[in-house]
Amino acid sequence: MLYWAISRAGIAVEDLTTALPKLPAWLAAEAQPTVKQLETFSKKVHLPFGYLLLPEPPKEHLPFTYFRQGKAAADNTVSLNVYDTILAIQQRQQWLSEYLKDEGHAPLPFVGKYKVADGCASIVADIRQTLKLTNDWAAPFKTTADAMKHLVERTEDAGIIVVINGIVGNSTRRRLDPEECRGFVMVDRWAPFLFINNTDAEPAKMFTLLHELAHVWLGHSAGFDTNKLLPADDPIEKLCDEVAAEFLVPEHLFEAAWKENPDFGAVARKFKVSTVVAARRALDLHKISKPQFFAWYAAWQEEWKAKQGGKGGGDFYNNQPNRVSLRFAGLIEQAVRSQKLSYREAYRLTGLHGDSYHNFIQTKLR
Questions:
Q1: Which residues make Cβ contacts (< 8 Å) with residue 260, sequence separation at least 6?
Q2: pTM, rounded to two decimals
Q3: Cα radius of gyration rounded to whole Å, the chain
Q4: Alpha helices, DSSP H only, in 45-163?
Q5: Residue 327 in contact with residue 156, Cβ under 8 Å?
Q6: Integer Cα distance of 78 and 181 in angstroms
Q7: Rounded CA separation 335/340 (Å)
Q8: pLDDT at 129
Q9: For a 10 Å CB count at each end of the chain, is N or C smaller?
């Protein structure tokens, strides 16, 4: 069990021996840890303490297909950081779905409303209608960040929870690698959850959000890395990408903009997206070739990574609306106030404890 826990965490034994000097002896069955030492070990390897008392490792499964590097992962496994994030979102969803049912809420009418055969246009139109957004909805906003914030608000107003985080919970030592995880979507008729990796490039986040919304309308959960901003070789993944692209940059408007000025930057500024999304749209509509797109994207990615070096994690409380979701936090507090949820459970579900939870509720919800 000790070997399994270390392997699961992806940590070298040598990196644990400073805090646990007797670990080599435990692994060699020459000594036994105390309960306190075992608790320390479980925290270091990010494992619930009770797991270590099981006779054999439990079987851990993802609740959906995970697409890696353009195809479904052969063993459908991910790193521990991504796995723990998925489990945390799954726990939130299970609670919220049951709570909304108990409160008499009807299922959301758009979840699973369409099939692949229905095509892109009808799904885009229905998402726009549900979110109450026009074709040129982004035009009034000055920046992509402002447009993204508005899109998240409209999405949550429709009953969909959006979580944006780049670490596991609030653990700054457990970063989520965007090369492995751009995001994932967990579909539920009462409480669909969208997760977006906040360490990803700002321009890619909006595309991920729209891709995930398409999944909700199709009724299919999934996780993905969207390698080079291209979909996996799967009918649903391809359609979700088409929906995202058409929603953000409608074809007829793109054609007019490209004719006026065939430049990624000009298109990006017009639609408040990004040069990445503009370039991807140019590829979709055969204005550039795949080799041209890949060469441009590689150069852009290197430039973006170079700019990230000095960036910190930001203010704790300012990050929480994204990490928790204001809609989810509001429903948690509503359940607490009606005595249908204990503070202890509220702390567990939000990842905020004691004063941190109460300060967040006071400053961000009231």
A1: 266
A2: 0.87
A3: 22
A4: 80-102, 120-131, 144-157
A5: yes
A6: 9
A7: 5
A8: 97
A9: C
